[in-house]
Amino acid sequence: MRFIDEVEIRVRAGKGGNGIVSFHRAPFVSKGGPDGGDGGSGGNVVFRASAQLSTLEDVTLHRFYRAENGRPGQGGKKSGRSGRDITLKVPVGTLVLDVKNDRLLVDLTTDKQEFVVARGGIGGRGNSRFATPRNRTPRRCDPGLAGEERKIRMELKLIADVGLVGKPNAGKSTLLSVLTRAKPRIDAYPFSTLKPSLGIVPYGVYQRFVMADIPGLAEGARHGRGLGHQFLRHIQRTRLLIIMIEATEENYQEAFNQLIEELDGFSDELSDIPRIVVISKSDLLESDKLKTDFSFEMKISSISGEGLEKLVETIAERLNLVQEVRS
Ligand SMILES: Nc1nc2c(ncn2[C@@H]2O[C@H](COP(=O)(O)OP(=O)(O)OP(=O)(O)O)[C@@H](O)[C@H]2O)c(=O)[nH]1
Ligand SMILES: [Mg+2]
After folding, report:
1. Which domain holds residue 93?
2. pTM of full prediction above 0.85
């Protein structure tokens, strides 16, 4: 799966149609009154959130989107037709920013939510609007106004229920690959994951949750030194984090503290997310009793399968997917 999570496009709303100068003509009427109609307004550029989409790929088909112009007014005081809006569908969770000042225009958080990013220009007035008792034959009409034009950046925070957090090589991608049908890249060296990927973990008969794998967090990642940093925002909206500490790590507490420091330093949003701390690659431990003061919830191994069922169950519980069966 390819994730396009940041896209820039240019949008232009439609120009308003011009008002026109026209005079009523009829047989035997030499000087008919002014009857020039107004121009129609230009179409808007609208963003619409859709729960059906999960990436920004669709919007990247073009770099420039424009809505239709309004039509000029017509004789007989008829207004021109308004330009049609153009609606761009983006996934729920898309942030829309104005590139010029980096200002957030809207955070599209709910399905079918709409936002006008560029407003169409209003149509000009036709000469029939300018008739006064003193001037019964006005020759004035207004041009339509230009539509708004903007450079837009869209950012998509991947919406996952659970985020995997760990140092490089902790086994995050492997875990995603055994719990879901996702096929993230797995390698025996750190920094094998370069982009986040998502997978769907089935639970029970009808339940499921979405798990996000991001690149490993190296020390100092939040200062921009590591790769994981730029991806932390992808897991900012998860409801649960799995903190993975490799079983072969020399000092669990230290490794844990480092990770927590990165999370806390990134944002309050991120540091507030509940966590499950697991020791990964438990198959590499010599004895099944871990001699450590470090407090963790469970040991797991993507190779032997140890703890995986319990992990999924615990996640489902914390996400409140478990329904109590009452007899
Ligand atoms: N023995 C053992 N090896 C594992 C386990 N899980 C993953 N590995 C191995 O550990 C290495 C790293 O696994 P990845 O899943 O790529 O680790 P990662 O945390 O995604 O690494 P980055 O993407 O670089 O942060 C690979 O060689 C895996 O085969 C496990 O449970 N047991
Ligand atoms: Mg990985």
Report:
1. 6-21+35-156
2. no
